Amino acid sequence: MTNPVNHDSPDLSANRAVAAAAPLLFGVHFLGELVSLLGPLAGLWWALRHGRFILFVAWAVVSVVYVYPLTQLMLIGLLIRCCPKPHSGVQRTTADAVTYFILAGLSRGVTTMNCAFWLSCLPYPAHWFYRLAGGRIHPSVFIAFPNVLPDPWNVEIGRGCILGQGAIVAGHIHVQGRTFVAKTRLGTDVLVGANAIISGGVQVGDGARVNPNSFLPPGTRVPPGEVWGGTPARRCETPSPTESNEKEIE
User: Fold this and answer.
1) Rounded to an integer, what distance in angstroms lies between the CA atom of residue 100 and that of residue 3?
2) In which order are the strands placed within the sheet that holds 197-198?
3) Do 152 and 184 form a contact (C-beta atoms < 8 A)?
4) Helices and strands counted in the chain (H then E)
């Protein structure tokens, strides 16, 4: 028989998550630093053998700036993929809580390490990381910042979506001291405005728009093409394209 877990505030839960994942994050750092060290050493051996010191310097820079953070990124993605996932619903048992904390700590580690830069500047290697982590994120999705997706393994996002600065698209939510986990799905061409929050279990249809600073509670269903906003979010009454054109002409 398992004992129920009393979760703390989101901030304290985040700290516990990082603490639970700390050994794995330390191992990833160590492996990344080992690869970053072996790369320049191999370049130094090659340069001394062939007398190409300038190429050695270039290779050392590439190893530190590119190889090292990408190695960390892919190793963490692989760890997230291999870790057991928490069950859907409220995390009531100690085993579910520990599983969630470790996964959340690994994802939080990605957004705080220097490798996070590569998640926000280019579709690749961000797409590789999300695929390794178990997420179904289309390569064309624009993600303004890495912490938009705190748990990518529990999120599905279709082609052409835009996730604004400060937005959060999560597969969980903290409610009254407990953590609720559920799959979140966004269709194609969905626009999530800045600082909007989409919680676990939300489904957003194709072409829908979530206004900035909005909050979609767990289980919300946004039909295709609609505009939602507010806290909690509700359907916004928007004029038809014909009415909009007429007003613009006037």
Assistant:
1) 16
2) 168-169, 197-198, 215-216
3) no
4) 7, 17
For 136-149, how does the pLDDT look when each residue is reduced to its tens digit (9 = 90+)? 999 889 888 778 88
What is d(CA 70, CA 86) in angstroms, rounded to the nearest whole number? 27
Which amino acid does the sequence have at 61? V
Looking at residue 29, what is its pLDDT? Answer: 67
- What is the distance between the alpha carbons of residues 129 and 243, in angstroms, rounded to a whole number? 44
Tokens linked to 101: 């904390």
Write down how long the chain is. 250
Report the C-alpha gap between 135 and 147 in whole angstroms: 14
**Bridge pairing between strands 178-181 and 184-186:** unpaired
pLDDT at 221: 94
Which tokens is 243 given? 């009415």
Provide the pLDDT for residue 9. 39
Helix locations, the chain, DSSP H: 10-50, 53-62, 68-82, 94-112, 117-121, 123-132, 241-249
Q: What are the tens digits of pLDDT across the range 110-166? A: 776 667 777 776 677 888 888 888 889 998 898 887 788 888 889 999 999 999 888
